[in-house]
Description:
Layout: E1 3-6, H1 11-22, E2 28-31, H2 39-44, E3 52-54, E4 60-62, H3 64-74, H4 85-120, H5 127-150, H6 161-175, H7 185-195, H8 201-204
Parallel strand pairs: 1-2
Antiparallel strand pairs: 1-3, 3-4
Helix pairs in contact: 1-3, 1-6, 4-5, 4-6, 5-7
Amino acid sequence: MRTLYHLWLHPFSRKVRLALAEKKLTFDLQVEKIWERRTEFLAMNPAGDVPVLVEDDGKIFANSQVICEYIEEVYPEHNLLGRDPVQRAETRRLVGWFDVKFNREVSDNLLGEKMMKRFLKLGEPHGPSIRAGHANIHYHLDYIGFLTDKRTWLAGDEFSLADITAAAHLSAIDYIGDVPWEEHQAAREWYARIKSRPSFKPLLEDRIPGFVPSDHYENVDF
């Protein structure tokens, strides 16, 4: 059985979960506590991070974008990148925006400080970093509103890996209640459309040991 090694509230793992579900590919989920540095896991991915996808035939793929590009090539049904080079370039640009810029400015400052530090036993959360994450997220939500004012979805008229990537990051932050949706109606409407997709339902059912989600986390009509 195809297996995805992942971690709770890890945006890059969630990105692959959504992509696999949109492709209608079946898979088992295996939580990997990366801080334990299991020998068996390091043999699969010497970098020691998730996600890692193991195919039915034993082939192993690491790194969320590598995995997503792989499944796009091998399982071309339900296209997630775009129909032409220009569209694919725009999708990849926005994937990079959220995986690099958003992750650095928001995800690392909020999830990293509030959640990962606790799991990794790296000390107390850093207050200035959390404040920076709260300030930075407004810019990104405004950008989502700007894009969806001109397009049906982030990268164009079709749902794509750009939407998946943005939603993966925001869903993790939404779990801890740190997305100011009430101040960004356009982004909220876009996210509500994604929450209603069948691929998203398993994420809304996630429960992290020791952490209760925000009151509206699983509510599609939040």
